[in-house]
Design brief:
Blueprint (H helix, E strand, L loop, with lengths): L9 H11 L4 H12 L5 H10 L4 H10 L14
């Protein structure tokens, strides 16, 4: 299980997840394009990650492609 640390930014988190899967952002985005016909360019995603403006649905597509799910729960609730 990979948990988002409040001190991390989304860029660090996604790249850590991608590294754990032994792949690259470029390969993930290529797979998304092949499977879903959604064109997310690596340049565009890189700029958004750097600026902190990536959309939730883009993060969702990346995590889904890596077979991860996003779970949001109230702080302190470990269930």
């Amino acid at each position: 299980m990979l948990e988002y640390d409040e001190d991390q930014n989304i860029k660090e988190f996604l790249y850590a997840m991608i590294a754990m899967e032994g792949t690259s952002m470029r390969k993930v985005l290529k797979k998304i394009k092949e499977l879903k016909n959604i064109n997310l360019s690596s340049e565009s995603i890189s700029k958004k990650l750097k600026a902190g403006t990536i959309r939730f649905n883009e993060v969702k597509e990346i995590t889904n492609c890596l077979d991860y799910e996003i779970i949001i729960r109230k702080k302190g609730n470990l269930e």
